[in-house]
Amino acid sequence: MSSSEDDIPIVQRSKRILDDSEDDVPISQLPSSVKKKVKRETDDSVSLNHPKSKSSNGTSKSSSNGNIKTPKKERTKKTPSDKKKPNKSLQVKSEDKPTKQEEDEEETEETYKWWEEQEDRDGEIKWDSLVHNGVLFPPEYEPLPSHVKLYYNGTPVNLPQEAEEVAGFFGALVETDHGKNPVFQSNFFKDFQQVLKECGGCNVEIEKFEHLDFSKMYAHFEQLKEDKKKMSKEEKREIKEDKERQEEPYRTCLLNGRKEKIGNFRIEPPGLFRGRGAHPKTGRLKRRVFPEDVTLNLSEGAPVPPPPEGHSWGDVKHDNTVTWLAMWKENIADSFKYVRFAQNSSVKGLSDFKKFETARNLKHHIESIRKDYTQSLKSELMQERQMATATYLIDIFALRAGGEKGDDEADTVGCCSLRYEHVTLRPPNTVIFDFLGKDSIRFYQEVEVDKQVFKNLKIFKKPPKQPGDDLFDRISPPLLNKKFQTYMKGLTAKVFRTYNASKTMQDQLDLIKNEGTVAEKVVRFNAANRTVAILCNHQRTVSKSHGNSVQKINDKLRELMWNKIRLKQMMLELDPKLKRKDPKYFAEIEDLSKEDIMVIQEKILERTKEQVAKKFERDNEKLKAESKDQLTANDLKERMQKVKELQAEFKIELASGKPEIKKSVTVEKLKSQVEQIEQRILNTQFQLKDKEDNSEVSLGTSKMNYIDPRLTVVFSKRFDVPIEKLFTKTLREKFTWAIESADKDWRF
DNA sequence: GGTATGACTTAGTATCCGGTAC
DNA sequence: GTACCGGATACTAAGTCATACC
C-alpha cells in the first residue's frame, strides 16, 4: 500500500473499493482475474416458474406442479462472462447521494428477481463473483471518567483499561437476572481476574467477588442512558446519520455483479457471554475480535479491502462453495461466527425456497412413511423399533432431532437425546413429556399416543434403565437421517417440522370463512398461526407490562358492563312491564353488587381527577409559554368541582339503585345503546383473549421459518387482506419471491 | 460407526422506533 | 412535547446436518 493511501481513513479507503474502482462496472466486466471458471452441478436442479412462463390456459404452472421443474440437462461449464450481463440499472451507483425517493426507486429497480430466472440453481457453487468491503469493527474501548470506579471492600480500584472494560461489562448487568446468577458471577470473576493478571494487576488484591462493589459503575451507565434519552431530536439525528455513514460501505456487496445486502456486517463486540438456561459458561468473557482473527471470503482477484490501520487480516479465501463473506473464531465454544448475506438476498431466498419445496415434496411420501414406521414399531430389532418410535415422535409431536451435547453446554434435549426422566407413562396410553428443549425452553405435554408407541416407550424405560439413561440408546440423528434419505431425497428430521407446520397452517386456513372485516380476518389468520406456533412449542417470556395491560382491559370491561346495566335499569324505569316480558334480558342487572359498583365508580372518579389535573398543568404551561397569567389553585378547585358533582351523582345512584334518566331518552334508543355496548364488550373480550392467548406464544418464529410464505400470500389474495397486515416490511422483503410467484390457487 | 469440524437455519431476547394519549 | 407501549428489527445463542477423517 502506498504511503499516500495510508493517510486515507479506513472507512473512506474501503469505501473506494466499491465506490470508485468498481462503480458502474458489472462484475462480468471486471478484470479477467476476478472472473472465475465455474463448474455447476446439474443434478436435481430446482427452478421456479415465473409469471412469464404461463401454461396455455394462462394459469401459472406453479399452482399445479409445485414449481418443481427438474429436467436434467447436460450443461457446458459456465464462466461469469457467459452469463447474462446485469442491466445497467442493477449496477452499483454511489456518486451523488440519491434522494430518499431515488433511493426507493433504485431499490425497486435493483431487486434481482432470481425466481424469474430459468436457469437451474442447484449444486456446490454458490456464487460466481463476490466483491465486498470487509467488516465493521466495534469502536475501541473508551475509559470511564476518573471518578467512576469499581470498589473493593470500600477501596476504589485503579484498574488498567483492559480490566476496567471487563468490569464495566458486569457493572452494566448487575441489576439483571444475569448479574444475579451465581454461575454468571463466578465465570465473570474468573475471567476478570485473568485479564487483570494479564495486564499487570492493580492497587488492590482482589480475591472475592462478594467484595466487589459495582454501584458507581452501574449508576454511571444508567446516567448515560438517561442522557441519551434527553438528547434533542437534532442530536439524535446527527448521531444516527453518523452511524449510517460509517456503516454504508459495509451494508452491501456485489454478488455476481449485483448489489446485495449483507446481514451482520458488524463484528460482534466484546462482552460477557449470555448463555441461555443453565449454561455452564454463562458470564465468561467474549474477547474482542481483531482483524488478525478474521478470514475474508471474496472473488479471486477482487480487491482485498484494507484492514484497519496497523492490522492485517487473518486470512483471505476465495471459496465459492460457501455463502459467508467473513468469519472468525469465538472463544466461548471455540466455534465459528460468520458474516452472511441479508435475509432478503437471493442466496437466502433461494435456500428458503428449496427448504419449502423439500418439505412440500414430503406430502407425496408421508403416507408410506407413516405406514412403514407404524409397521416397524413392532420390529424384532430393538434399533428398528427405536427408529420407528423416534420417527413417530418427530412426525406427530414435532420434536427436534436432539443431537448429543457436551458437559460445557446447557443440558437440553431433543428426541434422540431424551432421557428416562423426561418421559412419564400413564396407562393405558398417556405420555407426559417434560424436558428442556432448544434455548432451554420447557416442553411439557400430556398426550395420548399410539398403543404400540406406549408399549415401546415402556420397553425403552425397562430396568436396568434408570434416571439419567438415554431412552433411545441405539439410535442417533445421523442414523435417523440416513434412514429418512431412503424415503425421500433431502428428507431429514427437521423437514418433518417444516412439513407439519405448513400443512397445519394450510388446514387451519382452509377452515376460515371469507367473511367479516379485514381486522377480523387478520385475527383468524393469527389464530391459525398460533396453532402452528403451539405445535412447534415456540414460546416467549411474558412481557413486564402484560399484567398491567390485562388489568386495564379488565377494568374497561367492568365499566362497560356497568354502563350496560345502567341502560337496562333506565329501560325498566321507563317501562316496568318490560321485565316480565323478557326476564332473561334483564337478569344481568343483578350481576354487579353494590361493592362492585363502588369500585368501578371510584376508578372512574380517580381517572377523571387525574385527567383534570393533567389538563390543568398543561394549560398552565401553555400560558407560561405565552407569558400570560397562570391559572390559580382556585381555578383548579373550580375544575375539580365537576368531579365532585359526578361523585355526588354516583352516590345518589348507588343508594337508590336508579340512574338518572334524561328527558329525550326512549326505550328504543336505550336498546340500541345496549347493542352498541354489547358489541364493544365482545370486541374487548376478543382483544383480551387474543392478548392472553398470545402472551406466552411467539408467532414470529413459525411465520419466519416454518410456514411456507406462499400460504400467507394465497390467504392475502383470496381473502382480500393486504399483505402488509400479514407480513412486516422485513418479511415482505424476505418473501418477495413468494409474494410475486404464488397465485390464488396455490396449495402447499 | 463414531467424532470433529464447518456451515448453515432456527430461536428468544434486547433494543429501537414510531404511533398514541395526554 | 413527552411518556408510554407495543410491534419491528437487530443481535447472537443454540440448534441441525453434511462431510471429512480415523
UniProtKB/TrEMBL annotation:
Region span, Disordered: 1-117, 226-247
Which InterPro entries would you find in this protein's record?
A: DNA_brk_join_enz (IPR011010), DNA_topo_DNA_db_N_dom1 (IPR013034), DNA_topo_DNA_db_N_dom2 (IPR013030), TopoI (IPR001631), TopoI_C_dom (IPR025834), TopoI_cat_a-hlx-sub_euk (IPR014711), TopoI_cat_a/b-sub_euk (IPR014727), TopoI_cat_euk (IPR013500)
Q: Which PROSITE patterns match?
A: TOPO_IB_1, TOPO_IB_2
- Residues in a coiled coil are 606-694
Q: Where is the active site?
A: 706 (o-(3'-phospho-dna)-tyrosine intermediate)
Q: Which GO terms describe its molecular function?
A: DNA binding; DNA topoisomerase type I (single strand cut, ATP-independent) activity
**Which is a GO BP term held by this UniProt record?**
chromatin remodeling
Its Gene Ontology cellular component terms are: chromosome; nucleolus
Q: What EC number is given for this enzyme? A: 5.6.2.1
Q: Is the keyword Transcription regulation assigned to this protein?
A: no
Q: Which keywords has UniProt assigned to this entry?
A: Coiled coil, DNA-binding, Isomerase, Topoisomerase
Ranges of biased composition (kind: Low complexity): 54-69
Domain DNA topoisomerase I eukaryotic-type stretches: 272-720
Q: Which reaction does it catalyse?
A: ATP-independent breakage of single-stranded DNA, followed by passage and rejoining
Q: For bias kind Basic and acidic residues, which ranges apply?
A: 71-84
Whether Isomerase counts among this entry's keywords is yes
**Protein function:** Releases the supercoiling and torsional tension of DNA introduced during the DNA replication and transcription by transiently cleaving and rejoining one strand of the DNA duplex. Introduces a single-strand break via transesterification at the specific target site 5'-[CT]CCTTp site in duplex DNA. The scissile phosphodiester is attacked by the catalytic tyrosine of the enzyme, resulting in the formation of a DNA-(3'-phosphotyrosyl)-enzyme intermediate and the expulsion of a 5'-OH DNA strand. The free DNA strand then undergoes passage around the unbroken strand thus removing DNA supercoils.
Into which family does the record put it? Belongs to the type IB topoisomerase family.
Q: What is this protein called?
A: DNA topoisomerase I
Organism classification: Eukaryota, Fungi, Dikarya, Ascomycota, Saccharomycotina
